[in-house]
Amino acid sequence: MTWWRDGVLYQIYPRSWRDANGDGVGDLEGILERLDYLAWLGVDGIWLNPTFPSPNADWGYDVADYLAVDPELGTTGQLERLVAEAGRRGIRVLLDLVPNHTSIAHPWFRERPDYYVWSERPNNWLSAFGGPAWTFDPERGRYYLHDFLPEQPDLDWWNEDVRREFDAILRHWFDRGVAGFRIDVAHRIVKDRFLRDNPPVTPDDHPHVQRLGQRQTYTANQPEVHEVFRRWRRIADAYDPPRLLLGETYVLDPHELAQFYGAGDELDLALNFSFLHEPFEAAALRQAVEATEAALPAHAWPVWHGSNHDVSRLPTRWCGGDDAKVRCALLLLLTLRGTALLYYGDEIGMRDVTVPAERRLDRVGRDRCRTPMQWDASAGAGFTSAPERAWLPIGRDPAHTVEAQRGDPGSLLELCRAAIALRRRSADLRRGAYATVPAPEGVWVFRRGERTLVALNLSSREVEVEAPAARVVLATAREREGERVQRGIRLGPWSGAVVETGERA
Ligand code: GLC
Ligand code: CA
User: Fold this and answer.
1) CB of 115 closer than 6 A to ligand 1?
2) What is the pTM assigned to this prediction?
3) Ligand 1 and 343: CB distance under 6 A
4) Which atom of ligand 1 is nearest to the CA of 148?
5) Of the ligands numbered here, which is closest to the C-alpha atom of 103?
6) Considering just the CA atoms, what is the radius of gyration of the chain in Å?
7) Same structural domain for residues 209 and 79?
8) Claim to verify: residue 438 and residue 334 sit in the same structural domain
9) In total, how many domains does the chain have?
10) pLDDT means over runs of 10, the chain (505 residues)
């Protein structure tokens, strides 16, 4: 069985996790320094947001060289050391591949214009960041396509040479022990060959599609994208262990999501955005999970996340800053069937940080979820020795730091660690089938495998959930762990518990 099936992944935004050299920007050396923290927490793999040289028009997602490390973050030597040192602790390292587009500063843009998508006349496609997806290049006298910023020209995946370049990029990093890739914008790297106009949105479309301003009929999930993933699967499978392909698959229909797993010969994991976009309500989230469970074929393994570097953090977005709710959210993420993906800071309930106008860096307003990790309450938050140079403002929230929570059994961090540890020892939580159990409104109860029941009260009233005789093995109210329940589990407002049924000494 593959390591990531049982695993918990942890996303690190390298610029914001730990700054070892005091220049205000997080770096690879900083990650090396804090690997013991990750081992203590119990995660199995880390995904690093882009580590390649970049002019940072889109903070690393505009790549100028896919085979090197951004000097601000470190060196290839440090990355290799990180892979080795993480490996010694049983932690694998995933990098972030950006195949949809390069930076306009990538030498290819001038030297290999045939690698990009050009048109004499722009069609109606829109950039995901707003405005037309086409910009005129005076040098070539034509328009080039960019799904995102004009500084991020889209590659032409119909060009076999582009495919070959990326084969080599994958092998380059796999040869260096990198355990796999998160694949940026995986669903839309191949575009319609005839550049047909996208149809308009209708009121029935998902709010996310409404935001994009048009349907993605000719820009997302084209049949040929699956050829690319089958090709990458063959490359990844030639390694021991096979390398992991984790796609940023921003499609909202679970049946469409299922397509990215192919017949078990494409992506290993396809990120679930319909779940992420639901409000933190029992019925809505449960339906997203049930729909995914129903749509995924037996070979496909789900992956769940509630925060990332593009959206408001879950403690803010889902929980309105209420730690009782954050506890429920963490318990949920770590007990669903599938790989759990935490975003740095989720484990301590880090909230969005308000970034004053004069310090804003990201052009589309995502700074608030990318601020430095809050290790402690010192001026540099344990992130940097030079707080005055911190690239983004540091959140001042002493209760939500590693230092304040580590060792406190009632803390979010210790709950998170206990949930990860429980997954490790519970075959039900790792592999057991998911089944919804009927429950009152606002309450979500599901079975995992034979003997494990997860009950979440996402409401502000006290409830009682039917259950066979069982023992509480994990609870948001930690003092209840070990408690025996007969027939029913009482749950206070915004609380949850995992119980194991059947006799156990
Ligand atoms: C993905 C990334 C996002 C980036 C965009 C363009 O959605 O997660 O951060 O801006 O792709 O690369
Ligand atoms: Ca640094």
Assistant:
1) no
2) 0.98
3) no
4) 6
5) 1
6) 23
7) yes
8) no
9) 2
10) 91 98 98 98 98 98 98 98 98 98 98 98 97 97 98 98 98 98 98 97 92 95 97 98 98 96 98 97 98 98 98 98 98 98 98 98 98 98 98 98 98 98 97 97 97 98 94 97 93 98 62
